[in-house]
Amino acid sequence: MISGGLVALAVSVVVGVSVGAVSVPSGTVFGVVANKVWPGLADADWSAGREAIVWDIRLPRVLLAGLVGAGLALVGAALQAVTRNPLADPHLLGISSGGAAGAILALLHTGLFLGLLTVPLMAFAGALAATLIVLGVTRFASAASADKLVLAGVAVSFVIMAVANILIFLGDPRATHTVVFWMLGGLGLAKWSHLLFPLGILLLVTPYLLLRAADLNAMTIGDETAATLGIPVARFRLTVFVAGALITGVMVAFSGIIGFVGLMIPHIARGLTGGSYTRVLPVSALLGAIFLIWADILARTLMAPEDMPIGIVTGLIGGVFFIALLRSKAGADGR
Fold first, then answer.
1. ω before 305 within 30° of 0 (cis)?
2. What's the whole-model pTM score?
3. Distance, CA of 125 to CA of 135 (rounded, Å)
4. Largest CA distance in the chain
C-alpha cells in the first residue's frame, strides 16, 4: 500500500505542476526538473516563462501542499489516539487558531525580529498556548469526555480567533487584506526557502511518532491499559500535544488555516489499513499529502485565473465528511 501511495503521490505532484491557468505538458515538467537537478540532461525546448512557472511557482507550491497535508494528517491521527476521540483535529481543538494568532502577531506587530524563523516560532508558541488553554479548560470544567474535549476546543478557538481579529484590527490597514486572505488558507506565496521549515519539522517529529506507534495503539484502548503497559499516560499525552502544536504551528505559518485534513484523513487511513498506528501514521501522511495537493489543484482551477483560498475547498469537503461521521457515529451508538 505504501508503494502504491508513493506512486499516487508522484502522479499528483506532476499533475499539480502541469495544471493551472497556463497548462504545462508533463514532458516539459520532467525536462525542467531534470535540467535543474542535472544541468544539460534534457534539451531545453521550452520558454523561460514556462520554466519559471514550473520551477519558481508551481513546484514549491505543490511540495508545500504535500508537506502541510502530511503534517496535519499526522497530527490528527496522533491526537485521535491520545484523546480516544474520533473528532479530534488541530482545527477543531483550536491549535490551528492559536498558530494563526501567533503568526498574525509576528506579521503585523512584532516584525520579523528573528528573520524567517520569527513567524514559525510565534505560530508554534500560539499553537502551544492554545493547546495548554484547551487542556486547562477541560480540567477546569471537568470536561474530560471525548465530546466535551471537542466542545472546549471549539470554544477556545472562537476566543483565540477573536483575539486574532483584534490584532488585525489594530494592525497596519495596508496589510489587512493580505493577512485575511492568508488566514483563509493559501499556498500561493510558497518559495523554495520556505520548504525547509515544514520539511525539517516533519523529519524531526515523524520518527518520534512512528517509534511510539505501539504506545499510541495502547492509548486507543484506555488510560488504565496504557498505564499497566508502563506508559506514563499524562506525560505521553502532553508530549503528543506539544508535538502536534509544533507541527501545526509551523504548517499554519506557511499555509494559513486549513481545516479538516487532520479529521478526515486518519479515518480514511484506518479504513484502508486497520487500527494499528504502525500503518495508520505513514498512510495518513501519504493520503494527507495527496489530498491537499488535489485540493490545491481545485482551488487554482475552479475559478481560474482567480486563486481561491484552499481553506474554502477543504472546509466544504471536510464539513460534509464531518456530518457523515457524526451520522455514522450516531448509527453505531444506536445499535
1. yes
2. 0.87
3. 15
4. 67
